[in-house]
Automatic annotation (TrEMBL), chain A:
Its main location: membrane. InterPro entries: MetI-like, MetI-like_sf. This is Putative spermidine/putrescine transport system permease protein. One of its GO terms (biological process) is transmembrane transport. Pfam families: BPD_transp_1 (PF00528).
From TrEMBL, chain B:
This is Putative spermidine/putrescine transport system permease protein. The keyword Transmembrane helix applies. Belongs to the binding-protein-dependent transport system permease family. CysTW subfamily. It comes from Nocardioides terrae. The chain crosses the membrane at residues 7-27, 51-77, 89-122, 142-162, 200-224, 244-266.
Length: 253, 275
């Protein structure tokens, strides 16, 4: 029985790493000669459309993180300090996107986006608004865990008694104490935005995943390269996230 | 209370309004006149077949994912909490659970697609035709690809339940003369059953609502409900009946809501002893 355990683990490892290995192999393969080439990877920086899509996705990631923090962090701090009876409502609203699939929101969003387009124009960056909804459950959990580990009320009372206004309390007293939560929320949001396809493809915006699919019809090697690059970046962000989590949990003990 | 207004208004506009819009749109035709045609359209044979495919993909990937994930979780939990194996598997599963989408579809095309590494290797070593007639792009292929995020998700949600099984219960059972099998059958399995069933439901909902992976893999045709919605929104297949997409979306909300409610009930049962 002793060899069963490692064997089973090995089978799992093969299932999970074979696709990644294949991506690497495929993205460096010269389809004509069968040798190795860096052309597919080079296409990622040289192809103007791919470069634009990468820039769009990165801009969306930054904007989503910014809007998410501006919207969520003050609200969550405010709930803890002034209206604790609303905490269940905020939690419910934040976790709601887990039960309403993005696909459903896409179908019903036409009306809302005709207003968004009316005010802001039809740029791909308007996707930020729906992406904030998408990352809400994950960002909420990260921020909630971080806020629970500090004594928000005492900090706020101390600051208030020294004459600080509410804005100062939120931005300069509480927020700096939950940096690890803010980073966790930001990392998971970036990871989700970089891979997001449902909204962008069905609303006809050219983000990186949309471009990867389009590339797949021509230079499939380049779309494999872009896929692997996205996966590695996502993995890096999520591993950094789990390290942050660990640090927080060891400190809380 | 006023401080909550921006947040609540935002969620209302970008989340609640679209959902209500879907629920109402499902009962309207393209001219905005109320009708039940879209709803009855859900019950024609093509749509029912697509729904069945969706249930098969979600159901099979959920059950297989849950069983395989439970095995992996059990292997991990039996290792000491500080061991490298356990920490590595826990970190990796939380990463892999998020790996759905376009990139995953391409990873599997690179592996077992027509020019995939394993396909070519098998063809070169014994001439075995793994690609067949393109099963990767059918229901079976979707199940395989979905397992890539279902198994890790199961590990993530099931490890806490396994950790909740206290060693004292096992020791108590053994000291009362129970065999290893009796302990499993009389103590561990009954305790874990709600958590396991709950996880299956969570995995089902996860697969049922997934769109990106399937959309990137199956560029033409609509074998499952999410792809049928794509056809309704983008192509001419359902010309003049775009509002059918609203009805399918409503169907999706209803299925996911039922499954998630059952999940929440089972979770409450688990929470009674899992502390």
């Amino acid at each position: 029985m002793r060899w069963v355990r490692p064997l089973v683990l090995l089978a799992f490892a093969a299932f999970f790493f074979a696709p990644l290995w294949s991506l690497l192999d495929f993205s460096t393969k010269d389809f004509l000669t069968g040798g190795r080439t860096g052309d597919h990877w080079r296409a990622l920086v040289e192809n103007q459309e791919v470069r634009d899509a990468i820039v769009t996705s990165l801009e969306l990631a930054v904007l989503t993180v910014a809007l998410m923090l501006v919207l969520l962090l003050p609200t969550m701090i405010w709930v803890r300090l002034r209206v604790p009876q609303a905490s269940r409502l905020v939690e419910f609203l934040c976790l709601l996107p887990l039960t309403v699939p993005p696909l459903v929101i896409v179908v019903g969003i036409n009306g809302v986006y005709s207003w968004v387009n009316y005010f802001l124009g039809g740029s791909a960056l308007t996707l930020t608004f729906v992406y904030v909804v998408l990352v809400l459950p994950f960002a909420y959990r990260a921020l909630d865990a971080s806020l629970s580990s500090i004594d928000v009320t005492t900090l706020a009372e101390a600051a208030r008694s020294l004459g600080a206004g509410w804005l100062t309390v939120i931005a300069r007293v509480v927020a700096p104490n939950v940096v690890s939560g803010v980073l966790s929320a930001a990392f998971i949001s970036v990871a989700l935005v970089l891979g997001e396809f449902t909204f962008s493809s069905l609303m006809h915006f050219d983000t990186l995943p949309v471009r990867i699919v389009l590339l797949g019809k021509g230079d499939i090697g380049a779309s494999m390269a872009a896929s692997l690059a996205t996966l590695l970046l996502t993995a890096l962000l999520l591993v950094a996230l789990s390290l942050l989590d660990r640090r927080r949990s060891t400190r809380a003990e | 209370m006023l401080g909550l207004l921006p947040f609540v208004a935002y969620v209302f506009v970008f989340m609640v309004v679209p959902t209500i819009n879907v629920a109402i749109g499902a009962f309207k035709d393209n001219d905005g006149v109320y009708t039940l045609d879209n709803i009855t359209g859900l019950f024609d044979s093509t749509m029912l077949h697509t729904l069945w495919n969706s249930v098969v993909v979600s159901g099979v990937s959920a059950i297989l994912g849950a069983v395989l994930g439970m095995i992996l979780a059990a292997l991990v939990v039996s290792a000491p909490a500080t061991s490298l194996l356990r920490r590595a598997v826990m970190a990796l599963t939380s990463v892999f659970a998020q790996f759905g989408g376009v990139t995953l579809a391409f990873a599997f095309i690179a592996t077992v697609g027509s020019q995939g590494i394993i396909t070519l290797w098998l063809a070169g070593h014994g001439g075995f035709d793994l690609y067949g007639n393109g099963w990767l792009y059918s229901v079976r292929g979707l199940i395989l690809v979905y397992l890539y995020f279902q198994i890790p998700l199961m590990v993530v949600v099931f490890v806490p339940a396994l950790e909740g099984l206290r060693p004292q219960w096992r020791e108590a059972a053994i000291s009362l003369g129970a065999t290893r099998w009796q302990y499993l059958k009389e103590v561990a399995i009954p305790l874990l059953r709600p958590a396991f069933l709950g996880s299956v439901l969570l995995l089902f909902a996860n697969a049922f609502a997934a769109y990106a992976t399937a959309a990137a893999l199956v560029s033409q045709g609509q074998i499952i409900l999410p792809l049928m919605i794509r056809a309704g929104l983008t192509s001419e297949v359902l010309l003049g009946r775009q509002h059918l997409a609203y009805a399918i979306a409503l169907e999706m909300i209803v299925v996911v809501a039922i499954v998630m409610t059952a999940y929440a009930l089972l979770l409450r049962r688990t929470a009674r002893w899992l502390r």
